[in-house]
Design a protein that fits this description.
Strand order of the largest sheet: 18-19-11-12-15-16-24
Oligomer: single chain
Distance between the termini: 48 Å
Strand content: over 45%
Number of strands: 31
Structural class: mainly beta
CATH architecture of the largest domain: 6 Propeller
Largest sheet: 7 strands, mixed
Length: 348
């Protein structure tokens, strides 16, 4: 809700019984539009007036995302963050979209690797820094960290990552907090900002926070998962609704300095299909002609396959054939033109 208008952003219509395997138990259709509307009158005699919809079959073909208030210090607008599913793959979007009145703009030169599904979020604006911060708590994501290395899992697991996106003068960057959620929590949960704090449009004014702990609000509801990938391991009945309300504290000048910049990689490494069987196929983008080196690592950290291939600038396909390995999770690492990326895959 902004300037007297409500904005119904994207989403889809879903009919039937959900299953994570794509079986024919449901139908769904994406709205691919934003529907602005106004509400007038006094309860219970309310009148809803629809305004002209804003359509975009590419940027609004998504659901299960976060929509947050944003500001540059003077104007207020909305952002769409990530969400699912891409038109050409059952994977999350990695871009963010700014909504200024009736104009949609995909944020250039930015990829959101963490916190892809709807999760609790906290918005802050620092007037002294002229910077906007959006904090995402856990949820579900295609990327996560293991022993300091960013991993890619196309099963899109539950995660405990707390991610922070900074927008400074129109330049976006993403970091992860050194603090994590106390479990695989956050998917479908909400953050309730303390109404006593200085805020505007649900954006906390960071300059009003003291150097001691400020209790900013509460995380309520959502899913508590016993494992990262419960949908594919016979554990579909073991996730539960979270029964704990979490109080969230913020200590100014203590958190952002301990965040870790996400490594930048232009390889866009992808294993498809994942899980794989019979042969392992991957694709990636190389910045220039040359050689790409690859290794496959088992859960014990042992290299079970390695090699190199000639590559050309642009998209390349890596065919490793059949792995002489037992069923389980493995890591494929590819390095080309000074870029390195790892991805977790399942071999069965």
């Amino acid at each position: 809700h902004l300037n007297g208008t409500f904005w119904l952003v994207g989403g889809h219509r879903f009919d039937g019984q959900y299953n994570p395997m794509g079986h024919n138990t449901y139908t769904q259709s994406y709205t691919e539009e934003i529907l602005p509307f106004t509400v007038s009158g006094a309860f219970p005699n309310l009148t809803v007036s629809k305004l002209d919809p804003i359509k975009d079959t590419d940027e609004l073909h998504r659901r299960d995302y976060n929509v947050t208030y944003m500001t540059d210090g003077s104007d207020y607008y909305f952002n769409i963050w990530s969400g699912v599913f891409q038109k050409t793959a059952n994977l999350p979007y990695l871009n963010a979209v700014e909504i200024h009145d009736t104009t949609l703009t995909s944020v250039p030169n930015f990829s959101q690797y963490l916190n892809h599904y709807h999760c609790p979020s906290l918005s802050l604006y620092g007037q002294s820094q002229s910077a906007m911060y959006t904090v995402f708590f856990g949820g579900i994501a295609q990327y996560y960290y293991s022993n300091g290395t960013m991993m890619q899992d196309n099963n899109v697991p539950f995660v405990n990552t707390i991610g922070i996106v900074e927008n400074r003068g129109g330049t976006y960057s993403e970091t992860k907090s050194s603090v994590t959620m106390p479990g695989l929590l956050g998917a479908g949960a909400e953050f309730f900002l303390d109404e006593e704090l200085v805020q505007n449009h649900h954006i906390l004014q960071a300059d009003s926070i003291g150097t001691d702990t400020t209790w900013t609000g509460y995380i309520y509801g959502g899913i508590s998962s016993p494992a990262a990938n419960v949908f594919f391991g016979g554990m579909t009945n073991q996730s539960t609704a979270s029964s704990t309300i979490y109080r969230v504290g913020l200590v100014r000048n203590s958190g952002l300095s301990s965040n870790e910049e996400l490594p930048k990689s232009t390889l866009e490494l992808l294993v498809a299909p994942n899980p794989s069987k019979e042969r392992l196929m991957a694709q990636f983008k190389a910045a220039e002609n040359g050689t790409a080196n690859y290794i496959v690592i088992n859960p014990q950290g042992k290299v079970i396959a390695k090699g190199s291939i000639k590559v050309e600038a642009g998209k390349n396909v890596l065919n490793l054939g059949t792995l002489n390995a037992a069923s389980g999770n493995y890591i494929l690492q590819v390095e080309a033109a000074g870029q390195k990326q790892q991805i977790q895959f399942n071999w069965n």
